[in-house]
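Q: Hi! Curious about what Mobile element protein looks like structurally. Here's the sequence.
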Amino acid sequence: MCYDLIAKTNRKEEIQMSLTNSILCLFEITDPNLIVTGISKERCSTNQRIHVVHATLSYQLLKCPHCGHKSLIKNGTHMSHLRLGTLSGGRYEMHLKRQRYQCKDCSKTCGAKTKLVNRNETFTHNIKHQVIVLARDMLTSKEIAKLCGISPSSVQRILNANIHLAYRVKHLPENLCFDEFRSCNHWMSFNCCDAVSHRRIVTLKDRLSKDIIDYFEARFSVQERAQVQSVTIDMNAEYGSFIHRLFPNAATIIDRFHIIQLAGRALDNERTQTIRTIQDKHSRIYHILKSQWRLFHLDEIKVNDSKAVYLRGINEYMTQQNAIDLALDAFPRFRSVYQTYQGILSAIHQKDANAFQSLLTNYQPTSNQMDITINTFIKNGSALLNSCRYPFSNGPIEGLNRKIKALKRNCFGFRNIDNFFIRISLIHE
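A: Let's find out. The predicted structure is below.
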């Protein structure tokens, strides 16, 4: 009988230990001194249901942490209310009884410690990790708070305490991309990334030349900045004014997309002015210029000149080349702008710097919208031709800016720019 009683007792202890280990594994708790004593459900002052894990923390403490003597005695327990990570979207807490000790020599007290939580804190490392993971998914603070069972202000405090903006990157890459984006309160902020690895280098609160120069000169030596080989920018003239000062050996590259965009805008402006001169609003030429504007932006190689298709707006079957020729034959001035646009498009797609240079040199002004565009290209001559000589573009940084815009839209904007930059650093990790 005695042996059967001992066996039943051991069996109960094994079941209790297995249950304890299962509960601790669910919350990723590895402290061997924690013992789960039970699970219950309670309601807080806001009538929210709380899942409570009751546990004790006790171990043998040999020396007093204050005086170092081996004269400690147990002195009751202290109840701690810890916030655990959520398992099903609710609120989970641990009511932890910590063993207290008192030293007979110095009469000071101390308590049992655990790596589950920092000193004098109630949020465990598990729930902090959950908040950071959800913040990387571009969720709002309210959504994160609802999922984790905490307040939105607690979410922001956790992010501010655990995410720190780097002073600078360890190594400045050889190829950079510059761009800007709209951040808080209608401010335009500066963004920089590596053109090869697409890694974010720095995000500044504004795009003023003074602040950009101060950042790079204060954090990177002349030798580090001299190793930069290229900087890709858009048509912003402010960037071109200080790039050589910061990076003396770097070639300035204007993004190819912005070149085509500027030329296409001139083509559209000329097309719009041409439409206004047409008196008969029901003519075929008017409908071609009005409704089939996409045909004039196509590369000549991609224009279909053999198969007739139904063109909406014109309500006729004809080839795309035939529709283009009808409009160009009727307006020679528009033909000149169109041919210049196609020359720019061909030189950019083929990355032919000599053809681009020849086009700019031989261009004859005809008092149209393309004249302003060509003059802008001539002012940025070397940087413009570098777009054909180098393989880099502003595509990587435009992708980073797209993520920033998605974050700002998902969170319905930010009032605090520091909180905004913390969230930016999370989505770019």
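A: A fun detail: The first helix runs from residue 2 to 26.
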